[in-house]
Design brief:
The chain is α+β, with helices and mostly antiparallel strands. The chain is built from eight helices and four strands. Helix 1 links the parallel strand 1 and strand 2.
């Protein structure tokens, strides 16, 4: 059993939990209260000097960054390579989608929404334009594909679907993106552990209301 240091409102944490559920890997959940700065306690800094969640500990091996954790879990515990293909071209496409999610879609979405939620600022039109550009790219990626990285479910679908779910939570209208809407509705039914994401979204929703 692996230890997972996490916070329910964190999208990356939920992605790891869902991939673990798909692999039937049991996790010993260890909540970290970021508001109380538990991630800065000496005992946690010994595990992860970058003091981020999620952080996975498998025996004495510690790893952080959600996408790295997902890859590790699949490579160590999966019965086959379907979620993270060994074929170089297929794997490269999954990696590209993961990097797109981390470096563009998630970043631009957070850059637009979080100043409004945390600092109570007015929406920034330029950041909104940049976020929409990223969403439009995802819609293009899904134009001729049932899944985020080809014709089979991969860890890229987990990561991107959770990101899109946060976008939906904010009230952003996804219906104008035909391909995203089709794929996202399918992911709600197909992704193992989607209930984990919904529970985390409820926590985030309460936080936003406050």
């Amino acid at each position: 059993m692996c230890d997972l240091y996490y916070t329910p409102a964190s999208s990356p944490c939920r992605v790891v939990q869902m991939v673990a559920a798909a692999l039937k890997v049991k996790l010993r959940l260890k909540p970290i209260n970021l508001h109380s700065k538990e991630h800065l306690l000496p005992e946690f800094l010994k595990i992860n000097p970058q003091h981020t969640v999620p952080t996975l500990v498998d025996n004495n091996f510690a790893l952080w960054e959600s996408r790295s954790i997902c890859i590790y879990l699949v490579e160590k515990y999966a019965k086959d390579d379907s979620l993270y293909p060994k074929n170089p071209k297929q794997r490269a496409l999954v990696n590209q989608r993961l990097y797109f999610d981390m470096g563009m879609l998630t970043k631009r979405m957070y850059d637009f929404f979080f100043p409004q939620l945390i600092q109570n600022t007015q929406p920034d039109p330029q950041k909104f334009k940049e976020m929409e550009e990223a969403i439009e790219l995802l819609d293009i990626f899904l134009e001729n594909s049932a899944y985020a990285a080809g014709d089979k479910l991969t860890i890229a679908d987990f990561a991107l679907a959770v990101t899109v779910s946060v976008c939906e939570l904010t009230g952003y209208d996804l219906n104008k993106y035909v391909n995203i809407s089709r794929w996202y509705e399918a992911m709600k039914l197909e992704l193992p552990g989607w209930n984990i994401n919904e529970e985390g979204l409820n926590v985030l929703r309460q936080y936003i209301k406050k």
